[in-house]
Write a structure and sequence with these properties.
The structure is a homotetramer of 499-residue chains. Chain A is an alpha/beta fold. Chain A is built from twelve helices and 26 strands. Chain A has two domains: 2-12 and 365-498, Sandwich (Immunoglobulin-like), CATH 2.60.40.1500; 23-360, Alpha-Beta Barrel (TIM Barrel), CATH 3.20.20. Helices cover 29% and strands 24% of the residues of chain A. The interface between B and C is large, with 59 and 59 residues.
């Protein structure tokens, strides 16, 4: 058994910056029109609270913003429709979440080419006419500012395009064309909303990616192009293999991902003009594939915990891709568990990774402990909260955590645990026979099977708190001095003693 | 002023078959995933109750049922995903409405050609491989039967394709190919669910359309092809003119439409094998265009009332196209009022036509009066209910309705009136300046402005009930013998007399 | 016809202080546990927004705060239960409304006597032991501060007892004993929450009432007793007559009530120490009887409008007694309309007076016009909002309001009107036969009959806005410069012209 | 460790009559007006489904049915108000539950004496005037029949009074007077609704109680008094001790309670006229005291399981007293856990006993196994469902259940377990320090801590299913043949094997 001792007997301070709640990812904006999507987002925001949400496809045709029409004389008029945009934004704001805008992809009727990406066919080519593109950007932001208020909308971060260093996402991964797009777009944004913060280049990792960042920064600096933050992505999946529609790959170690992000941080800081500039990891996850079975596992939950503990060292945010399984990039999922990115499976079934975020998002106090297995914060009321995880990459051992507590009276230990035994709806679904459609009974059982186990114990004065984490468990704990409010005559133990 | 006298002093019986509640239309099935769509449908079913719902696009790619995939060896496998189908069907059944299935359009990867229709690109070409098509039909019905029960699903009517007599909806409007499609599809349906009722040819009107029905019937009879009912559509719009994205056209007289439908009825009855067979008008409305301003008017409500009063003579149902404005055929509407088909505008604003259906759907008693301006039924409890309308095609006159009541005591007259003065959200929106996006305040005002006026009066014994209908008013009335339950000491009139 | 001209062509400033939204009354706190009560309050807060709510019975036995118990040895222990208090406070705060605390009545087991008031038997005698009473007050406030936060609870105003100048509400209307109760209570409040604002004497009007205020102020000044505001009540009902359980009485003129309140204001200001001190009218209405039919009428709505226009001159708030008809003082109402105080009848039926508040609560701009028939404010965006009413005490005339508008372009006039024709559910219920129990159909009809009529018109440049108010109408209007957003090709008038 | 083997390899049939879902108890009818009550009932009916609900106080003054008033001439009139009755009945029927009416207690203004019972002061004396009582009964039933339909209301069972064999519930426990009350009441019921089923004597156990039943039956037989079923209560608490407001007592063995009920059954069957007549246990629980800590424990859940397994042998129903903790008999509970009867604690926290009912209510198939530790039924689809419990009265052992399965393929075993480790909110609350008021965080944790643990396993062909029950565990299991629907390429085990 692994052992971990956390000593809280003396005041100490640990390095831990928690930005887990800053942003979360979403398939594409048009899916936000769906009821199941909204139900999942409401469930998420009810359990925890994210501040921002970022997804693709703001300008894709299913959002139907760009709606030119040809009149009775055959003349074509530029026109925009904000019907769906308003609906999506209204729904986000009603749930207390603000957009982290991603400006893309290209409306078909504005595009220079026909290349598309995904089942839903997002056009990834540059605009045929730059002016039409910037007019679209400006009209959209103006409309938002008019509807939601200038100050409100100015507080939404804004990113230009997605992963232009991949030829699938940006025709030929043409860097020059991206830099040009970035420049005209960033200038258009500032023209309408000078205080809106704009950034790029939204690259994914891989060969040459760090060079992209460097080139991007140089370009902005040399051209005096507006830039408020730098964005990139972080995925851990190695070279994959495929079976049917599913993808399998080994994951790199969290420390590798951390180093990769640190290198980008270093590049940014190497520019005197940009030293300390915010870096936003606008997507991250283990695998980058929406049909990779790891996403449904407890292993995934533990991986993500390891990342949440350290990414705040280098980045101002890291947006889990994605909050739910309403997602269509490689087709519509045909079964509830299919390796989708979501923290929540279709049918409102919680997946283990959901709890990793619920637990981390609670940690708002002063950090007093951090290593690669646990973090602990101390709150103003004297209580402690922490998260521990037992990421099992090479071994199968349980992990025993003991916590030495400050002198004084008794403590209440409350724990929430999501592990392979008690919170593993994937396993239950598998043992049900992997049904493609769930009936009401199965659905309810799976929702129950996705709940973590809440437990408690009373730590006597001078005692130690202990918790044991099974394979890939992610556990939350809260330690609070007990203030006993016993009612005269109430005897908790009577029936325990008599029976 | 026009005058109408309805005499109820003696028992009488009138011809009036009310099938208004049997079926209602919907844009396309994929839109049923949307929250706004579900909110509108819930609002509708809360105000009145429809039994069936019919729309396009069951097999279109946004429903994502046909999901073949290519494996790691490059081999392609047939596969179906019922994720979205289940979600839509679950939501329908939860709202107490059953599908009237329309089998179409063609999944892209199964199609023989590339021709599409609508902004949402429904493929309208025959299958490249008949066997794949029938396999799809059978797999879908089998899945539904397994999920919802054999008997339940067998009770859903099933129609093959939509308007194959238009080249836009069926490549070249090729009649032979449609008849073939009908045959293989109907046989596939019966193979899985022998009791499911299947029909066609779902034609729209226009030149040659009656001939299509005749050819279709002959084909079925001669080939002994399964046929349980005949379907067609009914629209009243004449040759249109266009301005920008909007279409304007004169409407034919309701009596013309009635004669058109009667002719189809006559053709059916001319086949001894099919005499008396159900005819379903699976779409009807004034204009067939989703950007035709008439749909938002009180005029439309009055036209529809005139049709609801008579179509039951010849048809087993007539499905208003469509219940709501979540609709994308010629693009996503860019403003709340745009001439969309819906009874409910986006933002849950009632349009006048909604009340026509709410009122007709209440008429369940024994018909005692009908002409082209009013219908009245008598209920088992001795009360009367009726609807009157004042369709103003050529004149602007108000219409005064007087009702002679049976001898006896006092009557309560309750009326609900939707007319151009009191229930005309379109006018209010126009006078607001035709805003493309509505703020919360405007939205609430418009919702209020779309409510009919509820009023009452007390008819003394031997008196006559009277109601006055303004231009294009549709009015509901209920007449019930008063059973006064006065509490001792309660004096309704005291403050009226003293002030 | 009465005529009223409002001239807005030139900038002007009018005296009008609008505190209508500050506070609203409620039967008794224990009723807030009921679902119907919560539904009515939610409906109210959804239509408009009140900041505070005040009702009786915080310490009455149905709230079960004072729960001493006798142990197995026969010894009695003081004990408090906050189960219901928490539930009520949680529900208020969830609806965005804060309590205006009224400390009373006396728990039976703490009382010095047996005198009770109301069907629900609130004990109105002094405490048998002052220390037990102050301990109860302090324990309650401490608990609230712990649960909701010290600052939050300190912002809730706190009043001592209710109408001690009536022998029914305070044994013998014993002034000395009230002053003593006030002193010990106010000191107890300040001991726990020094920043909580405390006031009295919560008197109702009638003979000697102004003297009570004077005596109360002198007592506080001379004894240096904490006092942050002065409270009293305002009812307009004259000597009543009774029939069965119902009460009928003439109402005094609004100007009489205004003078009565001004006199109290004058008394307060006559004390140098208290000059300008806030006066809160913690209850007001037409009749003070919960079975007085006036409350359900449009007449009542117009009376209240007249008061809302002027009471802000002298008082910091005026709390309508009461928001809903979940009320039990003289027994549980046996029928939906029974002259209850509520703005909302049981079954969620809006009464006319509801709209008076909805309309006044919207008036947040700069006052530009006020007389005894209308008030108008101007908003920052250049729009005007106003309320007009046609209180018919002696005549039956309609009132025609014309509004001269500033030069410039077109204006949109939006109006909401609640009058005897269009928004009079009482009349409909009467004409239904005054049913004691409503079925679903009747209930829905009545809810519709309680909606005001929303209408609009377009005022051409240089034109005048006009509205006509029937008997006892209360009308809201909003005037806004039109910013036409016509879509190319959209022709609102086409179908009006062609039909 | 205890061991239990259940052999399902061969078809067998077991004696087990499951009436657990027939009826559930509730504090008193007036409490059904409360929102928290309705929320708890909705939670209950969402998790499982009860058919009937029975509680006290239909005629008590808080239901305010009997509302005589004195008019302006001093004359008193009989009058009834059904405002609250309608509201309660509407709410029950909306949740799919029907009343099991209990006619009592006495309205104050109709009573012959002043004796009351409970904090809420139910008057327990005979009517001063029999005619007023029967008029009240008849008026109430007539009203219900008019509102809900004659057939619907006739299907609600109806019981006369509650526990008249206790002097606290019926003045002097006067048997003659009860028999008289029963007779006039039963005759009044039949006069209005001849098909309504009426019964008594609703006695509790204890000395002389069986004699009461005998006397009651003889009285009915001899006097030809209407009688459709016999009612009594069953509690297991022995002589109690008290500390503060809490009561503690040993429980008798379930077999003792079973014998007690069998004896009543025997008495009934000893009358040829009444042989086989339905007996309804209209209340049962472990302790009869609402401040007895046993009710919150897992021990209670196990006791109730033992009773549910056997009471159906002798009784047509057994109504758990009570479903929720909105209850006021000995005062309002001052803390969330206080030994209240409810299956659901205030704040919507599930208690262990809730799951006993959820699990038993699922057992609708053919019984194939029963002993005093488990029951199993077989469903039409070949699956098995069962409940097992490990009631620890004298020992502390775990219990191991093994189930031999029929030959064939693999089986899915799904289990839900409520035991002292995993589903014990009482323990968590105790370890939190027994807080009287819960904050949002604590409340959510406790709701989670009240959930059972859902788990699964795959039983290979020819294998045995096994489950282990800790102390006082109640476990549900479902065994279903697996129908594997593996998608090509999906490999559940890949990430388990690689990590």
């Amino acid at each position: 058994m692994k052992e971990l001792n956390i000593c809280l007997t003396r005041e100490s301070r640990a390095a831990f910056s928690n930005h887990a709640a800053y942003c979360v990812g979403t398939g594409r904006m048009g899916l936000a029109l769906q009821k199941e999507y909204q139900d999942q987002l409401q469930m998420l925001q009810g359990l925890t609270h994210f501040e921002h949400i970022r997804g693709h496809g703001l300008f894709s045709d299913d959002m139907a913003i760009y709606q030119p029409y040809t009149d009775e004389n055959g003349e074509t008029h530029e026109a925009y429709s904000f019907t769906y945009l308003d609906r999506v934004m209204d729904s986000y704001l009603a749930l207390g979440i603000k957009p982290f805008l991603e400006l893309g992809f290209m409306p078909k009727r504005m595009a220079s080419g026909k290349q598309t990406i995904f089942y839903w066919e997002g056009n990834v080519t540059p605009p045929a006419d730059d002016n039409k593109w910037t007019a679209l950007v400006k009209a959209t932001l103006s409309h938002l500012a008019e509807r939601y208020g200038h100050d409100e909308v100015s507080a939404w971060p804004c990113e230009v395009w997605n992963e232009p260093n991949l030829p699938g996402f940006w025709e030929n991964a043409d860097k020059e064309k991206y830099l040009h797009l970035y420049e005209i777009t960033a200038r258009a944004v500032k023209e309408v909303l000078p205080d809106m913060r704009v950034g790029g280049p939204a690259i994914c990792g891989g060969e040459g990616s760090q060079q992209w960042v460097d080139d991007f920064l140089r370009f902005c600096r040399d051209g005096n192009v507006p830039l408020d933050f730098v964005t990139r992505h972080a995925y851990m999946g190695q070279t994959p293999g495929r079976k049917g529609r599913y993808l399998y790959h080994e994951m790199c170690d969290p420390s590798y991902t951390y180093r990769e992000m640190s290198e980008t941080r270093r590049i940014i800081d190497s520019y005197p003009e940009y030293r300390g500039m915010e870096m936003h990891i606008t997507e991250f996850n283990t695998s980058y594939n929406p049909f990779c079975p790891i996403h449904d596992t407890n292993l995934n939950a533990a991986y993500i915990a390891a990342l949440l503990a350290c990414l705040g060292d280098v980045a101002a945010s890291y947006s889990y891709w994605t909050f739910g399984d309403v997602f269509e990039e490689i087709g519509v999922p045909s079964r509830p568990f299919h390796g989708g990115f979501g923290m929540i499976a279709n049918g409102l079934i919680p997946k283990p990774t959901l709890w990793t975020f619920v637990y981390f998002n609670r940690l708002k106090g002063t950090p007093v402990y951090r290593d690669d297995k646990a973090v602990v914060v101390k709150n103003a009321d004297g209580s402690y909260e922490g998260v521990a995880w037992n990421l099992c990459r090479e071994n199968q051992e349980d992990m025993k955590v003991t916590i030495d507590l400050p002198e004084g009276g008794e403590w209440t230990l409350l724990t929430g645990t999501a592990d392979e035994e008690s919170c593993n709806p994937l396993k239950v679904w598998h043992e049900m026979g992997e049904p493609a459609s769930l009936n009401k009974e199965e659905l309810e059982f799976l929702r129950g099977a996705g709940q973590p186990r809440n437990a408690s114990s009373l730590i006597e004065a001078g005692g130690k708190a202990g918790l044991t984490l099974g394979r890939n468990a992610v556990a939350y704990f809260r330690l609070k001095p007990v203030k006993m409010q016993k009612d005269y005559g109430y005897d908790y133990g009577w029936y325990k003693e008599h029976y």
